[in-house]
Amino acid sequence: MSAKRxxxxxxxxxxxxxxxxxxxxxxxIISGNELKIDLNPGLPTVVPNAGPDSLSLLDFSVFxxxxxxxxxxxxxxxxxxxNIAITPNGQLALIASSLKVEAGAxxxxxxxxxxxxxxxxxxxxxxxxPKVIGEAKTGRQPSGISITPDGKRALVANxxxxxVTVLNIAGKSVTTGxxxxxxxxxxxxxxxAISPDGKLALVSVTEAGYLAVVDLTxxxxxxxxxxxxxxxxxxxxxxxxxxxxxxxxxxxxETPDTDAISIxxxxxxxxxxxxxxxxxxxxxxxxISPDGKLxxxxxxxxSNLAADAPQRTQEALITLLxxxxxxxxxxxxxxxxxxxxxxxxxxxxxxxxVQCHPDQQLRIxxxxxxxxxDTGERVAVPGRPSALRAAIPxx
Length: 395
What we know:
Elements: H1 3-17, H2 21-25, E1 28-34, E2 37-38, E3 45-46, E4 54-59, E5 66-71, E6 84-86, E7 92-101, E8 114-124, E9 131-137, E10 142-147, E11 153-158, E12 163-170, E13 173-181, E14 189-194, E15 200-205, E16 210-215, E17 221-228, E18 232-238, E19 244-250, E20 259-265, E21 272-280, E22 283-288, E23 294-299, E24 316-324, E25 327-336, E26 340-345, E27 351-356, E28 361-368, E29 371-380, E30 384-390
């Protein structure tokens, strides 16, 4: 047998044995579940004597998905639900520990009784069961995470630090690199998105109301460009073709006032915001489909308000948008469970998962063209689901 055929044969054996990380984890979605903070009272509230946080791993290579829970891995609902990331080769997951409970603490920008953490845990997905094999230090309150397409670096938005920290990835080793100062801590640097060619990043500066543009061609450098977007930008992404940057923002956060996503033309010279698309009230998170044709945004719609609030609702919303050239248009809106946090498409684009915080469950929707429909499948998780990320090879 030739050397080439021998290598091919061994690869087939590894795939069939389930030992090839990329094959084994290509349909993986990870949910971070928190018990120490509850949003149901209307404001983030520390729960006394709470149990441990956890992760839930959903394998969508079959349907309904196979589910496994891992206990004792800290994560939090405070910050965008993109504070989990999976490397393009499917070997590692990075989980941000943004906050720690500390009695009597009263700090700006975090719930009473908590203080910012500065830790990202490294989860090895190639072993059974997956386990934490290390941690890396970041700036204060690590939040949104994005990994470069080559899998060699991760960028972590430090919400209470006004900065972005680089994590260097070599095999299963994750080490802390440089930290880039972007803004004042009170401006809340919340999320980061990296372009498919790995040359630039967009960073949401929430309270200051803009997207920062970061050059990644030679290290990491802040450019002078500030993209003015709708309201207070939070989650941000870049389309798989690298043409558009997208963020969702809230205005004053008054239900039922309509908020919007902002569309950035990254190929224009200079790059510029070209559209604001109304989507509904209170976008918490959104995700783009693997082919870039759809956006699913989850909206609080008043479901996160206190029980005695006049505008409190018993249903949140999902808004689905479809791409039309250099923008997106709204094609569907349907109800979902209260206080939806994360949302994610499976890597094949066939299903959509939504986290429902107070119900401690994940809802699964089927994607049919430019529509979604509720499958009726519910996944119970051992905590209030707070962060969600899918394994998307090459992203």
